[in-house]
Amino acid sequence: MGSVKIEHLNKQFNGNTALEDVNLEIREGEFFALLGPSGCGKTTTMRCVAGFETPTSGNIYIGDRNVNQIPANQRNCGMVFQSYALFPHLNVFENVAYSLNIRRFYEGGLGTKLSTLAHLLNRRLGKVDRITEQKVRDALDFVELGHLADRLPGQLSGGQQQRVALARALVMEPAVLLMDEPLSNLDKKLRNVMRVTIRQIQQKVGITTIFVTHDQEEAMSMADRVAVMHGGRLVQVDTPTALYSNPVNKFVADFVGSSNILNGMVKGVNESGETVIRIDENRQLRTTYPTTKKDVEVIIRPESIRLLTSEHAASDENILDGTIELSTYLGPTIRYDVKVGELRFEVDTVFEAGSPILPSGTAVKLQIDPNRVVAL
Ligand SMILES: Nc1ncnc2c1ncn2[C@@H]1O[C@H](COP(=O)(O)OP(=O)(O)OP(=O)(O)O)[C@@H](O)[C@H]1O
Known about the structure:
Layout (H helix, E strand, L loop, with lengths): L3 E10 L2 E11 L4 E5 L6 H9 L6 E6 L2 E2 L10 E4 L11 H16 L2 H13 L7 H13 L15 H13 L5 E5 L7 H18 L2 E6 L2 H7 L2 E6 L2 E6 L1 H6 L4 H6 L4 E10 L5 E6 L2 E5 L7 E6 L4 E5 L9 E11 L3 E8 L2 E8 L12 E6 L5 E2 L1
Parallel strand pairs: 3-8, 3-9, 6-7, 7-8
Antiparallel strand pairs: 1-2, 1-4, 4-5, 9-10, 11-12, 11-14, 12-13, 14-20, 15-19, 16-17, 16-19, 17-18
Helix pairs in contact: 2-3, 2-4, 2-5, 4-5
This protein binds adenosine-5'-triphosphate.
């Protein structure tokens, strides 16, 4: 049973609050990301689950078992860190076998302890280690590193080292896999590759995984669900798509992807049931988003805005007239910074080969679908 339940978790360090009333239920087999800026409490939450940190109050369950009093080495959690923490003098195979041998040493009788010790000292595999050998080979095959078993960590790329670290965690067949910023040391391209690799391995093994990251793209592309943290508290726990389209507040909207955020005042509801919001003296927008507030924050994703030039026929539905201030080519998309009166909008459009990038100074119309205007 690899579900994880966190109930009313509080953690203080010398009177300073690091975690405040954190409540989470992570389902068995789920890939769950803890996301937030530096210092928000992600690592502390994970360390409390692992047993490296003692909660000030609250309960933690792994499966049905309350693990509050269970030491870290008996919680059956596998860990992967940012620094791969491999032994530089042991080869790949030995690095992965090490933790199994340590467990055999602690859990075995005197005979096992002696043979394991001998093995660790000799670093040679004897008969007694057949099971170990098979498990290590399987784990290395899983991360597709079987062919590099004899290499030392220093002879591997960063991505390969991280896969060794993953194999070392998986070989223990843990109930829960805990990963703390495992991709931070890799360059962007390799990080993107490793995201897919880790996700594929996690799905193959079906292991409950908690993944700590400050990178929203990483969390959103890998996780089944994401918990956004801020100042030691959970702000929103949701699927990536729900977080993106329905952020509960400005912090989440801003942290998860880029957003246009405007101050608005609700004028009323029109006959179609849409809320009409004034965004400045001369302009208003309609939204289908239900709100009971008078003063609202209007949140619009850059790709939710349709950019029209004077050539396009447009109705006057939720349209704002503006002027392009800056055009930035980003490969698959173009980001336009558009001035609308005193307001500024970021608009993302798909780049199509052959079609021109509109220059600064071009007069444009911004058409905004009322279904994609969030008012908080
Ligand atoms: N051992 C400690 N002693 C004192 N304060 C600590 C300790 N560990 C963490 N903190 C504090 O608790 C808060 C949460 O830290 P934590 O490491 O959990 O944040 P984080 O979200 O993982 O940040 P980062 O992404 O920078 O690692 C921070 O204010 C941090 O300074």
